[in-house]
Specification:
The complex is a heterodimer of chains A (about 240) and B (about 375).
Chain A lengths: L1 E10 L2 E11 L4 E5 L6 H9 L6 E6 L2 E2 L4 H5 L2 E4 L11 H11 L4 H14 L15 H13 L5 E5 L7 H16 L3 E6 L2 H7 L2 E6 L2 E6 L1 H8 L4 H9 L8
Parallel strand pairs in A: 3-8, 3-9, 6-7, 7-8
Antiparallel strand pairs in A: 1-2, 1-4, 4-5, 9-10
Chain B lengths: L1 H15 L2 H30 L4 E6 L5 H9 L2 E3 L5 H10 L2 E3 L4 H7 L6 E3 L8 H25 L25 H26 L1 H5 L3 H5 L5 H33 L13 H26 L5 H11 L2 H11 L13 H11 L6 H25 L3 H4 L4
Parallel strand pairs in B: 1-2, 1-3
Antiparallel strand pairs in B: 3-4
Helix pairs in contact in B: 1-10, 2-7, 2-10, 7-10, 7-11, 7-12, 7-13, 7-14, 10-11, 10-15, 11-12, 11-15, 13-14
The chains are: A alpha/beta (about 240), B mainly alpha (about 375).
């Protein structure tokens, strides 16, 4: 379970996030929807313990991230907005590195690696150096390193950006499977179809604030529109930054 | 502990598969001895050959004896210059002018003024000009002595004090400057060899968008920093020890005895130097990582670190030339190491106190920087490279 309570964050005079509160429950997929620059990534960075909030607090499984970041991060898997590859490592070595940071060793480590490689259908690329990997292959490596330690909570920052249909489908299947197993999934996006298709609950963020939250259907009802995209535009009050 | 092992393994895999970093390290190892060999071959050649000099005599007919005296001492007339050296000596334009009234003034016992015209800022001419002045002074004093003798006066009356120099320098101790350079190259190798590796693992990781995600994992930044320090230090230490061997080998191959110096390289000296390289490698790697983490990109880090690169030259030099310095400055990292290495190569025994103090100072500074860097990686500014 992930929870943020009354988060505010300023960079100098600029307010990136203001009094944001929401909760992502276990066994649900929660989406943060908002135009570019709405404060989604800042909010997630506070949740990871990378940035310190000016007010409020973030919790991972009820552990306060600011107070004990290392403890809190143990049950967190992160799929970042950039696929950073160590190009001189093989895919397996790179995933291994992240697994080890979560304390996996010996037999358990090897089993976890084998499992995640077959789950994500990447045994063929496992022993290749990541240099020259396609965007889809990079996505797999990144997802594998987020999932290898089987975290209770998974956070994804704009996961489908730049992915082809096959990769997007694979990602979607994985998320639905994790949801079925009772994991908590939070992902930020500005792609309407994806959010509408996947999310149990949507939190709409604009200009650093939560402007609405509820299921996709509830949001459509709230705005009196048929499509989530129209509802979204009506809710945030402009068509700025909406991408399909 | 197992977490730390995982971090270190990843650092080593990355660093030792990095061709660019390995080439940089090899270059650092090879370049030092090569530069040194070239410089000393040249110096030895200059030192052992007392060559003929060629100058222009104006009015040579006015003082044939003086000119003969000079020519006997290898100061020859430009007219007789061999073709091979002609251009060089014509360019140097050393002119000795002897006035017409030379013999007249000489016979009257008056002071004769002769003129030596040359570019005194030309370093290549220094020895020749000093040589000419010395010969003329000797000739002048010879004539003076004869004059006194003819008047029945002991010429020694004009030299109330004479000084006898007893040079206690041994062939080993004359090697001071040379040994200073050897020590400097050994320390330089620490920095030049590990620079690429240290940037790649810090600023490079940031550029590849990996840093942020790594800092979001349940691992303390101290462990991350230490794993990188371990890897970069090994790079630096290997290169530096190799440089030490290469330098030592080069020096034994050079005919240094022709410069009147000799070097002492026994296994114990090498072991002591290697023992100093280890804490220095720690210092070199943490110093480079410390500044590279402040850069947004590989290139920016390179420009920061090129300034650190000159420290192994600058610190020992500054300490050597500083007048009235407090004693403890001699135990600063790099400066202290340079002094100890120089003494060892000169064949002096190890100053144990200086050895201990210098290395403790190095380790204390390095540990402090390690914790500072670990702390800064928890700050927003460094994590997101905000300025």
């Amino acid at each position: 379970m992930l929870k943020v309570d009354n988060l505010s964050k300023k960079f100098g005079d600029f307010t990136a996030v203001e009094s944001i509160s929401f909760e992502a429950k276990d066994g649900e997929i929660t989406g943060i929807l908002g135009p570019n620059g709405a404060g989604k990534t800042t909010c997630l960075r506070i949740l990871y313990g990378l940035l310190k909030a000016n007010t409020g607090a973030a919790f991972i499984d009820k552990i306060n991230v600011d107070e004990s970041p290392l403890e809190a991060r143990k049950s967190l898997g992160i799929f970042p907005d950039q696929f950073g590859m160590s190009e001189r490592l093989t895919a397996r070595e790179q995933v291994e590195y992240f697994a080890q940071m979560h304390g996996l060793t010996g037999k358990a480590l090897n089993q976890a690696l084998d499992r995640v490689m077959s789950d994500l259908d990447m045994t063929e690329i496992a022993d290749r150096k990541t240099e020259g990997f396609s965007q889809g292959q990079r996505m797999k490596v990144t997802l594998a390193q987020a999932l290898v330690h089987r975290p209770q909570n998974l956070v994804l920052d704009e996961p489908t950006r730049g992915l082809d249909v096959m990769s997007t489908r694979l990602l979607r299947e994985q998320l639905l499977a994790l949801k079925a197993q009772g994991h908590c999934i939070l992902f930020s996006s500005h792609v309407m179809q994806e959010v509408a298709a996947l999310c149990d609950k949507v939190i709409v963020v604009a200009k650093g604030r939560v402007v609405a939250q509820g299921s996709p259907q509830e949001l459509c009802d709230l705005a009196g529109k048929e499509q989530l995209e129209d509802a979204f535009v009506a809710i945030i009050g402009s068509d700025e930054g909406v991408a399909a | 502990m197992s977490v730390f092992k995982g971090l270190v393994v990843k650092e080593f895999r990355e660093a030792f598969r990095d061709r660019r970093a390995i080439m940089a390290a090899l270059f650092a190892v090879v370049s030092g001895p090569l530069i040194m060999a070239a410089v000393f071959m040249f110096q030895i050649e200059e030192a052992i050959e007392t060559k003929d000099s060629y100058i222009e005599y104006v009015g040579a007919e006015n003082a044939p004896k003086l000119v003969e005296f000079l020519k006997a001492k290898q100061i020859l007339s430009i007219e007789n210059v061999p073709e091979k050296e002609a251009e060089k000596w014509q360019k140097r334009q050393v002119v000795l002018t002897i006035p017409e009234d030379f013999s007249e003034n000489m016979s009257q016992g008056k002071t004769v003024e002769i003129t030596l015209k040359a570019d005194y800022s030309n370093k290549n001419l220094g020895t020749t000009l000093k040589h000419i002045e010395g010969i003329i002074a000797a000739y002048s004093s010879q004539v003076g002595s004869v004059r006194l003798l003819m008047r029945g006066i002991d010429p020694r009356i004009t030299q109330p004090i004479s000084i006898t120099v007893q040079d206690t320098a041994t062939p080993e101790s004359k090697s001071g400057l040379l040994m200073g350079i050897v020590g400097m190259f050994i320390m330089m190798a620490l920095f030049t060899a590990s620079m690429t590796a240290s940037i790649d693992t810090s600023a490079g990781e940031r550029e590849r968008h990996s840093l942020e995600l790594i800092l979001c994992q349940p691992v303390s930044t101290t462990k991350i920093v230490l794993s990188k320090v371990a890897c970069v230090s090994v790079y630096a230490a290997i290169a530096s020890v190799l440089t030490m061997f290469a330098m030592t080998f080069t020096m034994t191959m050079l005919p240094l005895e022709k410069l009147g110096i000799s070097i002492v390289v026994d296994p114990l000296t090498m072991i002591i130097i290697a023992a100093m390289i280890i804490p220095l490698a720690y210092l070199a790697s943490i110093a480079q990582l410390f500044f590279a983490y402040r850069a947004k990109s590989f290139k920016e880090a390179q420009s920061y670190l090129s300034m650190i690169l000159i420290l192994p030259m600058l610190v020992p030099m500054a300490i050597t030339f500083m007048p009235h310095k407090p004693e403890w400055l001699n135990n600063l990292p790099l400066a202290g190491h340079s002094i100890i290495m120089e003494e060892l190569y000169k064949g002096q025994s190890l100053d144990v106190m200086a050895f201990v103090l210098t290395n403790i100072a190095t380790i204390v500074i390095s540990v402090a920087m390690t914790f500072l860097l670990a702390k800064s990686l928890r700050s927003e500014k460094v994590v997101l490279a905000l300025n």
